Structure formats: C-alpha cells, structure tokens
Sequence to fold (195 residues):
Amino acid sequence: MRNQKEDRRSQRTRQVLHRSLFELMSEKRYDSITVQDIIDCANVGRSTFYAHYQDKEDLAVSSLEHMLDRLSEDFGQDTSEGGRIVYTVGLFQHVQEQYQLFKALVMGRGFDLFFEKGQAYMSKQVEVRIRSLLPKGQKPPVPLPILANHVAGALVTLLKWWLDNKMPYPPERMDEIFHQLIMPSIWSGLGTDSI
Fold:
C-alpha cells in the first residue's frame, strides 16, 4: 500500500513539474527558464525536483516524451485510404490546440529538444509503419531507418514552418500537404510506384 501511495505522489509531482515547465514556456523563452523558476511555479522543494530529474533538460525531455507517447496513438491509425503513410491530422490538431505551448517550444533551445527527440520518436513510428507495408522478404533500395528519418524530419520541419507562419492552413490541409510532399520520396525509397 505504501509503494502505491508513493508512486501516485511521485506521478503527481512529475505532472506538476511538467505543467510548470509548460506554463513557464508560455511566458518566456525556454533557455531563460531556471530550475528555481520551475520549483517556484510548481511549489516544490529543490530536493523534490532533483529526486525526479537531473536538470531542466531532463525534465524537458521527459515532458516531450510524455507528450509524444500521447500522440503516438494517432500514428497507428489506419492510413490505407488516401495513400498516406502515417496519420498526421491528429498531430496537427494537437499542435493547433496547444499553439502557445508549441510556439514557446519553437523559441530558443526548446525547439532543438523537440526537433531532436520528436524526430527520433516519430522516425521509429514511421519505420514500423513502412516495414508493415513491405512485402515479406523485400529489401528496399533505401535502408528503412534512413527513409523513416527523412520522413520524420520533413514532418517536424513542416510543423515548425506552420507554427512560424501562425498556422495559415487547417490541420487537414497540412496533412494533405505533408503527404503530397513526402509520398514520392517514400515510393522512391521503397522502389515502387505506390504503396
């Protein structure tokens, strides 16, 4: 019983720290936020912070991974209709709903972390999806990790452009644009005309 209580308390503390970081990021640049700012906003002690995270970057990476885990369900949706490789409408919708947070990520070092971790995470999801579409035993001309990294990089770059330009198109249109841009590369990388 005690371990369950401690686990729940630990989860709540982590959630409070995540929310505090995101709240601060909506107010100022990520690179100007200090651990002291975070613990003041979260109303926790310094030792509590360091019991859960090594530093601000560790908290930021954990927050991004948590966010990406929640978004990963969208990548698994059926994309067979319309010639899509991944379902990105949900990702664009989430970014739109959390515009201030993602805009804060784009400012300063926050986007570097998002780009690095987000691209690596999305690359794994895309690679799984592409691998599932290949006929058994077929070896593509471009190694799948390279192709998946290319697709994920294009997606993260397109998200940044969309944010920088104040989301001039709706999420559904951004999904269409992404797939119009990326599908020829995927077909070429797989050595086929279509999937």
Q: What stands out?
A: The chain has nine helices and no strands. The mean pLDDT is 83. The first helix runs from residue 2 to 25.
